[in-house]
Amino acid sequence: MTSDRLLPRLAAGPLEEAMQDSPVVLIHGPRQSGKSTLATAHGNHRGYRSLTFDDTAVLSLAQSDPAGFVADLPDRVILDEVQRVPGLFLALKMAVDRNRTPGRFLLTGSSNVLLLPTLADSLAGRMAIVRMHPLAQCELEKTRPIFLERLIAGRFPMEPATRQRAKLAERIVQGGFPALLPLPTARRRARWHRDYVETIVQRDVRSMARIASLDALPRLLELVAGQTARTLNISDLSGPFGLSRPTIREYVTLLERLFLVEELPAWHTNRISRLVKGPKVHIADTGLGCALLGLSAEALWADRDAFGQMLETFVYLELRRQASGRDEPIGFSHFRHRDGAEVDIVVEHGAGRISGVEVKASSTVRASDFNGLKALREACGKRFGCGVVAYDGELTVGFGDGMFAVPLAALWT
């Protein structure tokens, strides 16, 4: 199978630009998503030395004297897994204030420093952040993603596509971690996912936070996988553990810091008071989620409720991953009115323009499938761009007034 070292990564372009502008650049994302591979590929021909804090000797030296460690670094350096040395950020700030040469420090991290304001603020104005995700479908297929371009432009040409059927379940269950590509069987991929969670709990969680119930985290992540694409309900998550709701809320935030869980906020406007404001929760990789739930591709395809949830997460993650490679910022949320109208994915782009994507597992689309998108259009007014029902069909079809039915395969073909 194809090695991830040969696959073009969407984050490569933003990384190149950031290294030309900022003295510190952080590539952050989940473990095993390809951060180190991308950083090494960038530094190979530019004279960068690479150090990793997974090396206990390097870690001990940096922890004991962060300022001295940074002072002794070469002019260009890659520092891997920097979340393990929180004290390093202040030392980097001091070094950058003395010398702001762009591209001096290239960092990778498996924890979201944006959720730790004290760390993020220490390098405010000095550090650019590049988000790394597991592989998108378009990266796996080596195709240029154009779905978001068309969504932003509000134009989808009438084009044929191939129905995916059960192949969709196979894509969902495989997920996007590069290390899975050489593994030949679903059983070995599922085992890799379970070992992955165990490694993160035993290594990263222990070093980041004092958790009284470490054994609760894998089970909590499994429950989140079962709730993926649903409104986050802390009470439901806390029930099996005998732990307080605030404690479970802290644990979910910790899983979010580790890029294992994503919360999708609700889109809102002051003009409408009857909008549901709670976030949705998404497992951060559908392959990981299916492994935690014990779902093979065949079992997922047979369980239509689970398939519908995982498919919505799959589409959301594909759009998030594709957006990470674009120049302009793109925001994501969901829309739900108390009368029942909802849109799975709201995409904010340009000067506050709003478009929506509704995900359907079926191969046919009816006019009623656009009801949520029409409610979003009414709520947005002139800010509305277009609405898409993504379905497992064979043809892109216009439904008038900026509404389109678009095959799911168009996300990566």
Characterize the structure shown.
- This protein has 413 residues and is α/β, with parallel strands linked by helices.
- It folds into two domains: 12-131, Rossmann fold, CATH 3.40.50.300; 137-411, no CATH class.
- 41% of the residues lie in helices and 17% in strands.
- It has 17 helices and 14 strands.
- The protein has helices at residues 12-21, 35-43, 56-64, 66-71, 88-98, 117-122, 137-141, 147-153, 166-174, 186-208, 216-227, 234-238, 245-257, 286-293, 297-302, 304-323, 371-380; strands spanning 24-28, 49-52, 77-80, 105-109, 127-131, 230-231, 261-264, 280-283, 331-336, 342-349, 353-359, 384-391, 397-400, 403-407.
- The strands form three sheets. The protein has a six-stranded mixed β-sheet, with helices on both faces. A five-stranded parallel β-sheet has the order 2-3-4-1-5, covered by helices on one side. The protein has a three-stranded antiparallel β-sheet with strand order 6-8-7.
- Helix 9 packs across helix 14 (286-293) and helix 10 (186-208) packs across helix 14.
- The longest helix has 23 residues, at 186-208.
